[in-house]
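Morning, I've got a small favour to ask if you have a moment. I've been staring at a protein lately and its backbone has me curious. You're getting the sequence in one-letter code plus the fold written as tokens. I've dropped the whole record in just underneath, so have a look:
=====
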Amino acid sequence: MQPIENPNPPSEFAHPIEAEFARLLDFYDIPWEYEPRTFPLAEDEEGNLTEAFTPDFYLPTQDLYIELTTRKQALITEKNRKIRAMAEIYPEVNVKLLNRRDMETMLVKYGMIEETPNLIGNPNDNNQNN
């Protein structure tokens, strides 16, 4: 299986924390791409894609993919499973998962703690997108 280039990356972020993360990268002049590739993880017997993973950001100067998640810690099992599968199939690809705790730490560090509910939501909300 080979990564699939995304010919039309989304023009809008799926979650407010992604927009804030992009602003932070811009502030530090770190080049980034938003959802530029999808990594196939599983195919059926006919070769049809049945599972894939599209990390949120790619940092080309670091050759690093970043996946952000603000889901309740107990709900990120699926993302962790996909990242493990990706490491097995694509060992040369570097992926870093930044979870809710990482996002909260980032917001505190940059003096944005009061923005936490708007950017990452309520930790007890099971319906979060990310």
Observations:
- The domain at 4-120 is CATH 3.40.960.10 (Endonuclease; Chain A).
- The radius of gyration is 15 Å.
